[in-house]
Structures are given as C-alpha cells and as structure tokens.
Design brief:
The protein is an alpha+beta fold. The chain is built from 4 helices and 8 strands, in the order ββαβββαβαββα. Strands 1-2-3-4-5-6-8-7 form an 8-stranded mixed β-sheet. The protein is globular and about 45 Å long. The protein starts with 7 loop residues before the first strand and ends with a helix. It binds coenzyme A. Coenzyme A binds next to strand 5, helix 2, strand 6 and helix 3.
Length: about 170
Amino acid sequence: MLSIKLCSVPNRSLLEKSWRELTTDELYSILKLRTDVFFVEQRIDEEELDNRDQEPGTMHLWIADDAGTAAYLRVIVDDHPAHADARRLIGRVAVRKDRRGEGLARALIERVIAVHGDEALLLHAQEYVTSLYAEFGFEPFGNSYIEAGISHISMYRAGTASRSAESILPL
Ligand SMILES: CC(C)(COP(=O)(O)OP(=O)(O)OC[C@H]1O[C@@H](n2cnc3c(N)ncnc32)[C@H](O)[C@@H]1OP(=O)(O)O)[C@@H](O)C(=O)NCCC(=O)NCCS
C-alpha cells in the first residue's frame, strides 16, 4: 500500500502505511502512543504486541504532529469473517491526551470508511465511546463483556455494497 499524505496542514497530517512501509521512527512513535494510552493510562494487562501489526493486510493509519503520533488506529484482516461477513477489524484506536476532543478519532474512522466502507467492518468498542462509532453506522451486537478489565461491546457496520443491494430488493 502506498503511503498517503492526505493533507499537510499543521497538526493534522493523516498518514497510512503497511508494516513494511513504516520507518523505525514512525513505528517508535506509534508504539509510544499505543503503550502510553493502553498500558500506562488504561492499565490494560493484555499483550499489546500481538503479531498482527506485521501482517501484509494490516493498515496503520495515524495523524502526526510536531510531538509525534497524535492519533492512531489499525485495520487488520481476518482470514475468515469473525462475525457475519466482516473480515476487517478496526482496533487500537488511541488519541494522545493533549489532542483529544478535536475530532481526530473521527477523522481516522472517516478515512477507514472512505477506503473500506464498501465492505463489512467490525470493532470491539470500549462501551463509553460507542457513540463515536455509531455516528458512522456501526451497530452494537451481542452482550457487553469485559476485555482487558474494560467493558466492551462488539459493533458491526454492513458494507455499503450490501446496503445498496438491500435497498433495491423487491418488497
Ligand atoms: C476514545 C478516543 C479515541 C476519542 O478520541 P478523540 O479524538 O478525542 O475523539 P473525537 O474528538 O474524534 O470525538 C468524536 C466523538 O466520539 C465520542 N467521544 C469521544 N471521546 C469521548 C469520551 N471520552 N466519552 C464519550 N464519548 C466520547 C463523542 O461522540 C465525540 O463526538 P462529540 O465531540 O461531537 O461529542 C480517545 O479519548 C482515547 O484515545 N481514549 C483512550 C483509548 C480508548 O478508549 N480508545 C477507544 C478504544 S474502542
């Protein structure tokens, strides 16, 4: 996948790379954000480095600023759908504390929908923030559960391809 610099206004550069395209500095900065947020802040005790980052299908998407990685998420691809027809899973959504509330997480999700929105998407949302994903058409399913000590709920978004097919089905 190509590295795309979508916009380069100060404090809002959105970048998208596969594992092999990441520089060591970029990788360091991404892992710093992920570990600062999930380890230090949220004290999640499950493994952060799960060997999915290196997979060829994994997309790393982030917003950089002068201080490093301000916001990040990744999209991984499962061999078989984990729920319904969804093989792509959004995860590790994290925004640096000093950049929260500016719409950075929203901008990252928007980009994922722009690139992969024709396909079904899945995520395991921390329950307190489901409204972020609901805004983009993700719907909760199943019961909430505790993952890494935090209450989560799975959310599914049908691909726009199947949505349009549904809309032209005869009544
Ligand atoms: C959750 C998180 C990613 C949100 O990032 P952000 O860039 O501040 O979010 P945005 O500014 O794009 O907010 C978009 C919407 O998400 C929802 N949202 C964001 N932060 C929220 C919070 N703390 N509580 C409830 N809803 C929240 C709101 O609906 C918000 O829309 P609004 O501002 O119009 O109310 C960030 O707070 C974070 O990194 N938290 C720690 C890690 C985490 O919980 N990750 C989510 C894993 S599912």
